[in-house]
Write a structure and sequence with these properties.
6 helices, alpha+beta, 7-stranded antiparallel β-sheet, 7 strands
Length: 259
């Protein structure tokens, strides 16, 4: 619901190395590399440090496997063990820095290319959906391209741009995947009307207290070519929105203790 944020494109190699070092150190408890990580067996009966090491290692790989999907695990382990045992590196620091820089540049270029391809694919899918959706009964289209359908007309106070609103909402992608939902969290939220993505703000201003709408927001009125967390570039979004209250009474701030 916040305005667009840039995605992180460069893999976090330093963070990966730091956490991996912590995992290896915990698992070995200060011993040298006479233990082989590849042959280690971990069960519920393993020692606490063995389980800690395994847990950190598993979580690290799970977090970074997407950005490091072509990592050579054999040479990774070789380099890790050589450094941990104080052995002479097979490459100079300058050579390591050079190869890492080139690798990061390659991964960033691949990610940018994928974003471009996803943007084209999603725009095509979004345009097709909106063209077909506009013909459906009850669906209206505004000058900006926003589409909406009144599920339940409200009879209360109309929403204005300088107000706060208390709402329930669910946001979905065209494939039906829910990316955000106050229903799932079990409680409505309070938002400033002007603090939303353009299509959501425009849709709110069409509503009244007690109303329920479905909004079909083109990418240009949502997160555009950049996308957002969990939302690919040029994604068309579908929201179900219920306006529960306009300018709701905000909870009082607890009294501050005297200094």
């Amino acid at each position: 619901m916040n305005k667009v944020r840039n995605k992180v494109l460069v893999p976090k190699f330093l963070a990966l190395a730091l956490v991996s070092t912590l995992a290896f150190g915990c698992a070995n408890n200060g011993n040298k590399s006479d233990q082989s990580g590849s042959s280690a067996t971990v069960t519920e009966k393993s020692t606490e440090l063995e389980k800690v090491g395994y847990s950190i290692g598993f979580a690290t790989a799970e977090s970074y496997k997407e950005s490091l999907n072509d990592l050579n695990l054999d040479t990774f382990e070789k380099g890790f063990r050589d450094a941990y045992d104080g052995k002479k590196a097979a490459l100079t620091k300058e050579q390591m820095q050079e190869v890492m820089t080139k690798y990061e540049e390659k991964k960033q270029a691949e990610m940018m290319e994928k974003m471009k391809q996803d943007a084209v694919k999603n725009k095509t899918a979004g345009d097709k959906f909106l063209a077909e959706n506009a013909k459906k009964e009850g669906v209206k289209t505004t000058k900006s391209g926003l589409q909406y359908k009144v599920l339940k007309p409200g009879t209360g106070k109309p929403v204005a741009g300088n107000e706060m609103v208390k709402i329930n909402y669910e946001g979905k992608l065209l494939d039906g995947k829910v990316f955000d939902s106050s229903y799932d969290r079990g409680e409505p939220v309070v938002f400033p009307v002007e603090g939303m993505i353009p299509g959501f703000t425009e849709g709110l201003k069409l509503m009244k207290e007690g109303s329920s709408y479905e909004l079909y927001i083109p990418a240009a009125l949502a997160y555009g070519e950049t996308g957002n967390t969990g939302i690919d570039p040029n994604s068309t979004l579908i929201f179900k929105v219920e306006v529960l209250e306009v300018n709701p009474k905000m909870p009082e701030q607890p009294a501050q203790p005297k200094q």
